[in-house]
Amino acid sequence: MNRREFFGWVSVGAVASSLPVAIATFLPDSHNSANAETPETNRSFTIAQSSGFKSVGTVASLDKDGQILNKKSPVGSVLVIRNPNDSNSLIAVNPTCPHEGCTVKWKKSEKYFDCPCHDAEFAPDGKVLKGPAKKPLATYQAKIEGNSVVVKAG
Ligand code: FES
Prior knowledge:
By secondary structure, the chain is α+β, with helices and mostly antiparallel strands.
């Protein structure tokens, strides 16, 4: 390679490596413009989505009904309540009874989940209080993001 060829390759390399920066400079700033036009609830939803949490309902619905029962949520069937011992935190379980698959109900005044089929009872953390169920209810992580109640499996 002679000197002329060498400098020719260096110039091509310099142009090629700076091309992405040049393109980014001339594109509209989609990140900032999206935030400027995105309502707070959508931004919270995006944050929740990125951390693995999925929206299953609204805080207004939770407070109006005392629970959110969403059998077709993005994480599967879920029942969310406010923690009876700390109303600032949430509890989310899979309401499918591990005995034979009935849907448990939250008994707010008694503070346990009740299965209407064979009377199994589960503590707010999902543990079995009374059989015939032998396994606990599956649980989710749950929290409030903006106006949404969000849950995450595991
Ligand atoms: S299905 Fe729940 S106790 Fe039997």
